Amino acid sequence: MLIREATSEDWPAIWPFFHAIVSAGETLTYPLDLGKEDAEGWWFVPAPSRVVVAVDEAGTVLGTAKMNRNHMGNGSHIASATYLVDPAHSGRGVGRALCQYSVDWARAEGYRAMQFNAVVETNTRAVKLYQSIGFDVIGTLPEGFNHPTEGYVGMHIMHKVL
Predict the structure, then answer these.
(1) Residue 67 and residue 49: Cα distance in Å, rounded?
(2) 95 Cβ contact partners less than 8 Å away, ≥ 6 residues apart
(3) Which UniProt keywords apply (predicted)?
(4) Predicted pLDDT of residue 5
């Protein structure tokens, strides 16, 4: 697997799984009806943020990550990231590779920590993955997320010192 900078030419491969994940409404706080054109603008953020894709040896996009400052101004020393793995390629270490890549990127860019603001507590695979990479749940917003089948569930804030 290779992780490289994403380009607009990758969007047609990202969009189908981006749309499926977002419209399912189970893990992200994005609008469920986010259209293709608007979604591309939400995902492809300008520098100093970074967007990457994980691709296999054939060049197939397996997943993507968006890395950015968590806050501006005096909070701009904390990084954040969002990850999307094509469900057709889950269980192959793509999410782990993207998460580790983003931690390494944030450290190299001089960030002091990473914080995830909205990790849905029912997304147990992601929570377990992030914890295995050294993130801690530092708080949970009770009923912060309206899950389509589980109802109102907590939303974790997760943190890792770099």
Answers:
(1) 6
(2) 63, 83, 85, 125, 126, 129
(3) Acyltransferase, Transferase
(4) 97
- At 19 the three-state DSSP class reads helix
How far is the C-alpha of 78 from the C-alpha of 112, rounded, in Å?
Answer: 6
| CA nearest to 11, candidates 48, 64, 57, 59 | 64
Facing residues of 53 across strands?
4, 64
Angle, helix 124-132 to helix 94-108, in steps of 10 degrees: 50
DSSP 97-155: HHHHHHHHHHHHTT-SEEEEEEEETT-HHHHHHHHHTT-EEEEEEEEEEEETTTEEEEE
pTM: 0.94
| CB of 156 closer than 8 Å to CB of 139 | yes
CB 43 within 8 A of CB 14: yes
CA 122, CA 161: separation in Å to the nearest integer? 24
Q: Tell me what the mean pLDDT of segment 49-62 comes to.
A: 97
CA-based max dimension of the chain: 43
Q: What pairing do the DSSP bridges indicate for beta strands 78-85 and 113-120?
A: parallel
